[in-house]
């Protein structure tokens, strides 16, 4: 199944003359007052930083404004008929993860290119919420074949919907690697032809599309996608 996308004043004793403070004492009071105000401002700023991102770490971001996509977009995926994207070259893209680290997903035919199983997920999607923990456990229990990597993309982020923020969700299911961030306008999902989620795209080392799937596929079918990617490396 899948989802369509007060100031205190001191009192003087009666009749007691008030002593005019010396200029030095007045200066000391002004200095102390300035220090107190600076401390208050610092505390206020600290509270703002801690609250940023719905309780997540201040360094955590949820979408990327620096997504770049290179190449022709894939046709929109449908569950019926032959997939027109099979054999086409998927776009390359660059983006960051939740901590702001830069990543590129490319296939230029170089010796360091890998076959990839790309999964695109939304934090609010109940099918993704069931699928991602299953895949996470599979990855924890199994070693990926040489030359194959699994790429998770967080897309369709909506702070007004459930299970937000996605960074907390992926951490809660022990996702074993970095999660790449889509843009606010979902540029990666659009370029890969996403129509429903969860969404899977299998790529050979040169970014040729080998297969696309949508909806919950489970551990056995996911293992089959990994084998498909591995076979493209061997060939």
Spell out the blueprint of helices and strands.
Blueprint: H1 23-51, E1 68-70, E2 92-96, E3 102-105, E4 115-121, H2 126-141, E5 148-154, H3 166-172, E6 179-181, H4 187-191, E7 199-203, E8 209-214, H5 218-234
Parallel strand pairs: 4-5, 5-6
Antiparallel strand pairs: 1-2, 2-3, 4-7, 7-8
Helix pairs in contact: 2-5
Structure overview:
The protein has 235 residues and is of the alpha/beta class. The chain folds into two domains: 21-51; 68-234, 3-Layer(aba) Sandwich (Glutaredoxin), CATH 3.40.30.10. 31% of the residues lie in helices and 17% in strands. The chain contains five helices and eight strands; from the N terminus they run αββββαβαβαββα. The strands form two sheets. A five-stranded mixed beta sheet has the order 6-5-4-7-8, covered by helices on one side. The chain has a three-stranded antiparallel beta sheet with strand order 1-2-3. Strand 7 (199-203) and strand 8 (209-214) form a beta hairpin. Helix 2 crosses helix 5. The longest helix has 29 residues, at 23-51. The radius of gyration is 27 Å and the shape is globular. It starts with 22 loop residues before the first helix and ends with a helix. 31% of the residues are buried. Mean pLDDT is 82; it is low at 6-27 and 31-58.
